[in-house]
Design a protein that fits this description.
Number of helices: 9
Structural class: mainly alpha
Distance between the termini: 18 Å
Shape: globular
Order of helices and strands: HHHHHHEEHHH
Length: 271
């Protein structure tokens, strides 16, 4: 993949995420105006919990909008900061952002009132969430393990196989459309297995990055930054109260600063 092609993809993702954000905002405003927007399925927990840790469906909606905004900002950063840098890692980080966009389709559940329906769109949203949870940790693992200079010739093939593999498993894993979770994702089989696998893959990614930096005499800022991004993403996927949303924002903000800034410095030194 040439630098020009990668830059076009990053710019296209920025434009798409921006349009996607605007479209969802318009749908949200229109549904409020028509009084068709309802969160009756999951009411705010009145059990006397503190405001910060109390479940609130509005916070879930806000976290999904933030998720799309994060993709907008980060994809633009990738385009501007790495515009003239042959960084293979960024191509896989692009897939990480694709996973976040796919996961944000959960926002259609309340916007289109699909929580009590059984439609093709509901199934598509459910499959998209599984796809995102498979692609998110694997894309970051590939960014670390397959991001070396000698792996550049296999970049397109690796991306293709990664996408096809995640799509395949996302479509064959059974959905339980009768159960909608409190974070507006369709329940699915093997949830615990996928969660454990994602954690193990993420730990392997951080360990591999740590030793890569140590071997090349780099600082561990990228390891710290990627760790913050991973933690922030896990929290964001399950942001059901204000505290989780604030934590996700902080982790992703500083994760981006540490990881992308230091990664750019490393490529500048190498170039």
């Amino acid at each position: 993949m040439t630098i020009k092609t990668r830059n076009r993809l990053n710019l296209s993702l920025f434009v798409f995420s921006l349009v996607f954000l605007a479209a969802n905002i318009i749908i949200f405003i229109f549904s409020l105006y028509n009084k068709s927007f309802s969160l009756d399925l999951f009411e705010t927990n009145p059990s006397g919990k503190a405001f910060l840790i109390q479940y609130n469906p509005i916070i879930v909606i806000a976290s999904l909008f933030f998720q799309i905004i994060y993709v907008c900002v980060t994809s633009f950063m990738l385009f501007r900061v790495f515009e003239k840098t042959q960084a293979t890692d960024i191509s896989y980080f692009f897939l990480f952002l694709i996973a976040l966009i796919a996961n944000s389709l959960r926002i259609w559940m309340p916007l289109f009132g699909m929580t009590n329906t059984y439609t093709e769109l509901l199934i598509f949203c459910g499959n998209s969430v599984i796809f995102s949870k498979l692609l998110m940790p694997l894309s970051l693992l590939f960014a670390v393990v397959m991001g070396n200079v000698d792996q550049r010739q296999d970049l397109e093939k690796n991306i293709f196989l990664l996408l096809i593999g995640c799509i395949f498993f996302a479509t064959i894993i059974p959905l339980n459309t009768a159960n909608i979770c409190i974070n507006y994702e369709v329940d699915y089989s093997y949830r615990t297995v996928i969660k454990i696998a994602a954690i193990l893959v993420s730990l392997a990614t951080l360990i591999a990055l740590f030793f890569n930096n140590k071997q090349r005499f780099y600082t561990q800022y990228t390891t710290i930054g990627l760790c913050l991004i991973i933690i922030g993403t896990f929290i964001l996927f399950n942001s059901t109260n204000l505290l989780k949303l604030i934590m996700a924002f902080v982790f992703l903000l500083f994760g981006n600063i540490f990881y992308l800034k230091e990664l750019h410095k490393q490529y500048l030194w190498n170039d």
